[in-house]
Amino acid sequence: MRELLRALPALARTVAGLATDPALPRTAKVALAAAVVYLASPVDLVPDFIPVLGYLDDVLLAAVLVDGLLNWVDRPLVLRYWPGTAESLERLARAARVLAVWVPRRLKARLFAGTR
Q1: Domain count along the chain
Q2: Which of 14, 44, 55, 100 has the fewest C-beta atoms lying within 10 Å of its C-beta?
Q3: CA-to-CA distance for 12 and 96, rounded, in angstroms?
């Protein structure tokens, strides 16, 4: 999880670049936009003032977003916007996969359909 937090600025740049790229399918763009809006919104499923649990929904949603981007979207497309190295992106992809393991593969495939 620390690795995901450290990579937040690079992830924000990558998401911004991917959101405007015509090669990224519409379903993936909608998933990106919905996740960004939810993460930026002060209204959550679990209020942030509840210790630990308050931020858990945000962390899990961010992990699903990162897992979808890094493990379902065509890697060269992501690398086009990733400011770091391919190795750092791979480490981040592994960390996100571990945190998002509870999300069914079919759901991720549907959200990021046509990206591979």
Answers
A1: 1
A2: 55
A3: 15
Average pLDDT over residues 5-20: 86
* pLDDT tens digit sequence for 24-39: 888 888 888 888 888 8
| Token pair recorded at residue 111 | 């959200």
Q: 90 vs 4, 17, 72, 78, CA distance in Å?
A: 12, 18, 13, 11
Return the pLDDT at 114: 56
The answer to whether residue 15 is domain-embedded is yes
Q: How far apart are CA 3 and CA 92, in angstroms?
A: 7
33 domain residue, yes or no? yes
Model-level pTM?
0.73
Domain that holds residue 92: 2-111
